[in-house]
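Onboarding guide, step 5: your first structure request.
Type a short instruction followed by the sequence, for example:

Predict the 3D structure of this protein.
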Amino acid sequence: MSRSLLVGLAILALSGSTALAAHHTHHHRPMNAQAAAPESPPPGVWMGGVNSGDHAMHLRNLHDSGYNPKNDFNANGNVAAQ
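The system replies with structure tokens like these:
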């Protein structure tokens, strides 16, 4: 009985290690990622900058959606958990 248990454990250990070794992959970024990037962004991507009107519209949209910044913190001054 103990011999068959020992053989079963050995087979299980070897099959598990080969499965993990076959699945092992590396995901690295290329060495020179900047060389692959284009010199300038494609047309239409950076047509304008951010202005104060954009910020005001963002705040107005937050207000209109019901966002209240006072609810960000609890009574102790810690960030409230959702």
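Each response can be followed by summary notes, for example: The chain has a mean pLDDT of 74.
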